[in-house]
Amino acid sequence: MLSSIDNKNWGNCQKKKQSRMVNVDCYERIFGQSQIPSDKQYWSMCGKSGQSTRKEEGNLPYLIKGCELDQMLEKEFIVPSQFHGVEIRESIFDANQNVKGVNWYRDDFLLAMRKYDSSQFNPAFINLDTIYMPQKAAAYMGKVLYLLAYRNIRNVMVSLNIVLKCCMSKSHNENEIIKWMYKDHRVRSACKKAEQDGCLIEMFKDKGGDFFVYNGTGRNSGTIMQTIIFYRRQGNVSIL
Ligand SMILES: C[S@@+](CC[C@H](N)C(=O)[O-])C[C@H]1O[C@@H](n2cnc3c(N)ncnc32)[C@H](O)[C@@H]1O
Fold this sequence. Notes:
This protein is an alpha/beta fold. The chain has helices spanning 2-6, 14-31, 68-74, 90-96, 109-115, 134-150, 174-183, 185-196, and strands at residues 41-45, 83-87, 103-106, 123-132, 156-165, 199-204, 212-215, 224-234. The longest helix has 18 residues, at 14-31. The structure holds S-adenosylmethionine (SAM).
């Protein structure tokens, strides 16, 4: 069932749009900027963003209305060249390539970032838009934070979507998630390295101190999704 979610066109999905706005809002609260700096990049597990039929107007005529890239452009959070869209599925990648002026990769997300020219790699925002269960997601987050630490990337936010509860499965609680995150040896190494580099890695929570939780995107979805946000910023003063 979850793999059919992967194939979905997210363009018309209101919950997805709201969840993306949570990311933009958090970025603004962490870094005080409503746009990502012009020398920095937006990396995402992007899903379907392009189509073979031309839209009537606009500079990107093959872009799917309401998709992540479209929403970020409309919000003026980024310009097209800042978007780095990674997609593991060939058919989705092929469709995305109809949209020009943007960076598309067909690869595993982590590998695409690792392979990218390290002297040019400068993400401000990373969207790990997975449907992974918490333990797998924690390990993936660990690998990404480790990469950012060892490339000494400053001022970057990483947003991770995970499945908190699916169908009949047991729901995981907040303490378990935090435990898995900080139990991961890469997360711990990345935090240590940040300290050595005069940076800070922290988990960012909602104003009331909660994680960001939303219902799955199917109409009758019993899936509960959670967004976990980490940031790595210059300086050692917590903003929490
Ligand atoms: C939830 S959808 C993306 C939705 C999109 N970010 C949005 O906001 O509309 C996740 C996409 O990531 C792809 N994907 C899953 N695992 C991946 C991986 N390890 N590397 C790259 N892409 C992956 C899936 O095929 C799917 O198209």
